[in-house]
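Invent a record, attention on tokens:
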Amino acid sequence: MAGPTLLVVQHHDDCPPALLGDWLTASDVTLDVRRPYGPGPDLPAVADLAAYDGLLVLGGPMGAGDEDTCPWLAPTKALVREAVRLDLPTLGVCLGHQVAGAALGGRVAANPRGQQLGLTPVGWAHAAADDPLLGRVATRPATRGIHWNDDVLVDLPEGAEVLATTPGGEPQVVRLAPRCWGVQLHPEADLAVVSAWAASDRGSHEARGIDQAALLADLDGARAELDATWRPLALAFAELLATRTSGQTAGAVPA
């Protein structure tokens, strides 16, 4: 029997599934990666989402409300709402977290504290230990994750639960709906991915006196720690995809 099929929304060439995709693929998950910003297959229709076992929405440099310049954001939000209606396991990463939060009634805005960068402690709430997706990660000691974001989810959707906060108190991991999660950090990012982001921000970082070389060296030095911390998230997500009980058996995936 074939493994689960996951719809992946990628918003930019520099924001691929990367490590998260590798870990999911190793767990027998088939990734259908859609890149609606350029050549290639567009997003599936909302009505076709039932052919999938879950939804993953990745990060990107645009804002969650930039639908005029990034017209695929509106149908992505519709897919999130449909995934929640169908009870499909859904995960949003950074921008994806913000898009999912906005789709379900939350509000996204620029972080008044400024851009969040680099290795950041994860402030787990007690409820995270029993969470079906994050429990394995939340019970690890001294968890850290990679942040690279300007915006944050400032108002949560009704019924959402904060599972972790940053040192500044911003929502860092949120259970947005019973089987929908958002992580403001980047479990998928390796050195190559973050280096591309750093290149895009080089001018502004130089103006602010940010030492990108030191920041990237810190991330590279923490690779083993980060892999050990966040691979369990991918494994737990793969298990949720494989055992979903909506009654829909994964079938042919629409082109």
